[in-house]
Design a protein that fits this description.
Organism: Patagioenas fasciata monilis
Distance between the termini: 63 Å
Keywords: Immunoglobulin domain
Domain Ig-like: 60-160, 169-269
CATH superfamily of the largest domain: Immunoglobulins
Number of strands: 20
Radius of gyration: 26 Å
CATH architecture of the largest domain: Sandwich
Order of helices and strands: EEHEEHEHEEEEHEEEEEEEEEHEE
InterPro entries: Ig-like_dom, Ig-like_dom_sf, Ig-like_fold, Ig/MHC_CS, Ig_C1-set, Immune_Resp_Modulators
Protein name: Ig mu heavy chain disease protein
Structural class: mainly beta
């Protein structure tokens, strides 16, 4: 494609060029080169790409390692955050070892390793590590390491709290629409938007008591717009019409690191006399 100006408004340009190769050529390890000539400067640059067969030999069984962050509910509600190190596609548990380390000195004591057999015959291993909210907020880096007889070299994955801009969400609790009052069940909707990062938790309460999570639905965070960096989410709760008319109080509780107290709630109930 033709060169285009950089989006930052500078005086430089960028361009891309694409070619197609067959799967067989790529897996054979053939080398492909891209040659770029810039006449104004007289420079010529050549880049190379090929399939790294050596990596295939290091991990022939395609064992995968993932480290999952703590939920905001565990961080700021129960204050018992946990990290999960998940190893998938294990052909067996022979010589399997998982260990945790952190950047600063200290002893780490993970829970007992959990092994689960999948429908395809492989195993999934999960190691859970309990950490402190203070360590996570301070930017402590945690690393999970896995070794196995089918790995020529151990796999390592690290996780640390993101350092991007934090934006608190706007929260709106919408009561049932008047047209819905003709039905035996009603809908309460909680709109949460303009927040960043996207790690968010929504809980519902009835008369200040937790409502089971299987009685409401919350959408995954979505971008506020194609050009936006913030997110939005909806949570929908179905309630009995009789409960709403009786004046029961329903609350939408949102947990997010950008909120002043890490959580905030909005309440709704039927207005007396209406």
């Amino acid at each position: 494609m033709a060169p285009r100006p950089e989006e930052d408004g500078g005086a430089t340009y960028w361009a891309t060029s694409r070619t197609n190769v067959t799967r067989e050529e790529w897996l054979e390890g053939r080398s492909f080169s891209c040659r770029v000539k810039h006449p104004p400067s007289g420079s010529v640059t050549v880049g190379h790409a090929r399939f790294c067969t050596g990596l295939e030999k290091l991990n022939p069984k395609h064992i995968a390692l993932h480290v999952l962050p703590p939920t905001v509910g565990d961080l700021y509600v129960t204050r018992q955050p946990k990290l999960h190190c998940v190893v998938t596609n294990l052909p067996s548990d022979q010589d399997l070892q998982l260990s945790w380390t952190k950047a600063t000195p200290g002893v780490l004591t993970p829970d007992m390793l959990d092994l689960r057999e999948e429908v395809n015959g492989t195993l999934t291993a999960t190691s859970t590590l309990r950490i402190s909210t203070d360590d996570w907020e301070a930017g402590e880096r945690f690393t999970c390491r896995v070794s196995h007889r089918d790995l020529l070299e151990p796999l390592n994955r690290s996780i640390v709290r993101g350092s991007g801009k934090v934006t608190a969400p706007l929260i709106f609790l919408l009561p049932p629409h008047p047209e819905e009052l003709h039905h035996p069940t009603l809908t309460l909707t909680c709109l949460i938007h303009r927040f960043h990062p996207d790690n968010l938790e929504v809980r519902w309460l009835k008369n200040h008591q937790d409502i089971p999570v299987d009685t409401y639905v919350t959408t995954p965070p979505l971008r506020d717009g194609t050009q936006e960096v913030t997110f939005f989410s909806y949570s929908k709760l179905r309630v009995l019409k009789s409960s709403w008319l009786a004046g029961d109080v329903y609350s939408c509780l949102v947990v997010h690191e950008g909120l002043t107290m890490k959580m905030a709630q909005r309440q709704a109930q039927k207005n007396p006399g209406k």
